[in-house]
Amino acid sequence: MNMKTTIMAGVMALSASALAAQDSITVAIQLEPPNLDPTGGAAQAIDSVLYSNVFEGLTRFMADGSVVPGLAESWEISDDGREYTFTLREGATFHDGTVFDAEDVKFTLDRARADDSTNAQKVLFDGITQVEVIDPLTVKVTLDGPNGSFLFNLAWGDAVMVAPESIEDIASNPVGTGPFKFDNWVQGDRIEMSRYEDYWGEAPALTQATFRFISDPTAAFASVMAEDVDAFVGFPAPENLPQFAADPRFQVLEGSTEGETILAMNNGQEPFDNVVVRQAVAHAIDRQAIIDGAMFGIGTPIGTHFAPHNPDYVDLLDLSPHDPEKARDLLAEAGYADGFTTTLKLPPPSYARRGGEIIASQLRAVGIETEITNVEWAQWLDEVFGQKDFGLTIVSHTEPMDIGIYADPDYYFQYGTEEMVNLMGELRGTTDPAERSEILKEAQTIIAEDYVNAYLFELAIATVAKAGLQGLWVDQPTAAVDLTGVSWAE
Question: What is the pTM of this model?
Answer without folding.
Answer: 0.81
